[in-house]
Protein: Isopentenyl-diphosphate delta-isomerase
Amino acid sequence: MTDVILVDNKDKILGFKEKFAAHKNPVPLHRAISVVIYDNKGRMLLQKRSENKPTWPLFWSNACCTHPLKGETYKKAAKRRLKEEMGILSDLKEVFRFIYKAKFDKVWGEHEYDTVFIGRYTGKVSPSPEEAADYKWIPINELMKDVKENRDIYTPWFKIILGKLKN
Structure:
């Protein structure tokens, strides 16, 4: 089983906890990464999360998310997971970090120290069916409109990321 890295709100390591146990309420703060990918037309790559995910299954979100492994840098985790989930490689740039907490249901939730990366990619996307139920490229103006009209189909962290990218 994979462990997540438990941290305080300044990203100081406090310990480790098995990934699924770390997402049961009350969820301890732990490290995460989120990757946002744009193509050369300015569209954003969205992933519809697999129905097998315990948190926010079949919700639309950014290209990929994960938790860094012990000894793994944020950037290495982001590149690894982008390849594993969406089958693509991209140069990535860290753009910001934030902490959020969200409860999915009585059992599952998130409480993450999230490091966000942006990259560019044009080419074939080959999502892993275990990770993604679907994907799409969407123009930013259409995405912003849809998020306003259909907030409940997007993950909570993705809505926060969009708000921060807009500013």
